[in-house]
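Structure in, sequence out. Go:
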C-alpha cells in the first residue's frame, strides 16, 4: 500500500507542478507583477514548491535525512537531466550555443554552496546562531551577492513558455495547483518515510533519489520546452538557477528545524550526495568553459556521459 501511495503522490506532484509553472508564467506576464524579478521569483517558487513542501513535511515528522536529501538530491537530479538531454540531442551541441557570461556565475556559486555544505557535514559540531548553522547564514549572504551577477536580460529570458490563459483563470489555477502540491508533497514525504521504515532502505537514499527525482520532474518539462524553442540559455539557466534556489530552501528548512543545525542531525551519507553534486557541477563548469572548437562527436559527448555514469553509480552505491 505504501508503494501505491508514494507513486500516486509523486505523479500528483509532477502534474500539479507543471500547471503551477504554466499558470505562474501567465501571471508574471499579464499582471502588474510582471517585473523581471517578481516574475522570476514566481516561476522559481512554482517549480520549487514540491521540494519545499516535501522537505518541510519531513521536518515536521522529524526526518531531517529526507528533508536534506530531497534538496541535495534534487540538485543532483537536475544536472543529471541536463546531461541526459545533452546526450539525446547531442547534434545540437547545447553547451556550445549558450551565453557563458550568463550561465557560468550560477554554476560557480552552486559549486561554492556545495563546498560549504560538504564542510559543514564533514566537520563535527557546528557554530549555531538561534539554532541555525552558521553555514546557512554564509550561504544566504552569498546568494544575495550571486543575484548581482545575474543580469536583468538573463532573468527575463528564463521564464518557460506556456499556454495562454485569462489572468483570472491563471490566478485561480495557480492557487489550486499550489494547494494540490502542498497536499501531495506532504503525502510524498510521509509515504517516503514509511517506505524507508518498512523496506529498510536508507532514509537519505529515499530522500536523495526517489523523492528528489519525483519533485524534480517539472524541471525536466521546462528544459524540454526550452529545447523545443531552441532556447538553450533557458534550458541551462533554469536548471542552474533552480539549484541555487533549492539551496536557499535548505536554509529555510534549517530555520524551521528547531533541534539545532539540521546538517548536524543527518546521516553522513549526505556527504556523498553533496560530493556527487560537486563533481557534476565541476564537469558542467568544464562544459561551459570548454572552447566551442571541439568538433569530435565523442569528445563533445564525453563530459555529459561522465555526469550520467556518476549519477547511476552513486545511486547504486548509496542504495
Amino acid at each position: 500500500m505504501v508503494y501505491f501511495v508514494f507513486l500516486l503522490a509523486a505523479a500528483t506532484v509532477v502534474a500539479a507542478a507543471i500547471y503551477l509553472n504554466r499558470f505562474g508564467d501567465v501571471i508574471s506576464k499579464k499582471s502588474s507583477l510582471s517585473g523581471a524579478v517578481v516574475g522570476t521569483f514566481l516561476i522559481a517558487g512554482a517549480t520549487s514548491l514540491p521540494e519545499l513542501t516535501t522537505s518541510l513535511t519531513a521536518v515536521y515528522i522529524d526526518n531531517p535525512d529526507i528533508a536534506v536529501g530531497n534538496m541535495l538530491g534534487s540538485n543532483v537530479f537536475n544536472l543529471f537531466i541536463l546531461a541526459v538531454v545533452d546526450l539525446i540531442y547531442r547534434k545540437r551541441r547545447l553547451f556550445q550555443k549558450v551565453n557563458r557570461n550568463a550561465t557560468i556565475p550560477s554554476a560557480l556559486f552552486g559549486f561554492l554552496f556545495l563546498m560549504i555544505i560538504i564542510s559543514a557535514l564533514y566537520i563535527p559540531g557546528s557554530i549555531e546562531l538561534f539554532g541555525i548553522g552558521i553555514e546557512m547564514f554564509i550561504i544566504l549572504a552569498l546568494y544575495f551577492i550571486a543575484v548581482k551577477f545575474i543580469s536583468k536580460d538573463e532573468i527575463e529570458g528564463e521564464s518557460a513558455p506556456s499556454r495562454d490563459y485569462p489572468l483570472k483563470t491563471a490566478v485561480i489555477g495557480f492557487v489550486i495547483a499550489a494547494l494540490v502540491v502542498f497536499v501531495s508533497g506532504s503525502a510524498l514525504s510521509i509515504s517516503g518515510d514509511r517506505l524507508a521504515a518498512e523496506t529498510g532502505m536508507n532514509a537519505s537514499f529515499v530522500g536523495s533519489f526517489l523523492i528528489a527525482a519525483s519533485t524534480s520532474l517539472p524541471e525536466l518539462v521546462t528544459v524540454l520546452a526550452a529545447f523545443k524553442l531552441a532556447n538553450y540559455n533557458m534550458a541551462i539557466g533554469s536548471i542552474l538557477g533552480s539549484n541555487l534556489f533549492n539551496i536557499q530552501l535548505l536554509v529555510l528548512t534549517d530555520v524551521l528545524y528547531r533541534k539545532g543545525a539540521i546538517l548536524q542531525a543527518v546521516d553522513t551519507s549526505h556527504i556523498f550526495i553533496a560530493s556527487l553534486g560537486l563533481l557534476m557541477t565541476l564537469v558542467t563548469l568544464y562544459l561551459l568553459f570548454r572552447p566551442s572548437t571541439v568538433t569530435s562527436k565523442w569528445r563533445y559527448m564525453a563530459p555529459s556521459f561522465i555526469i550520467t555514469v556518476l549519477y547511476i553509480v552513486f545511486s547504486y552505491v548509496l542504495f
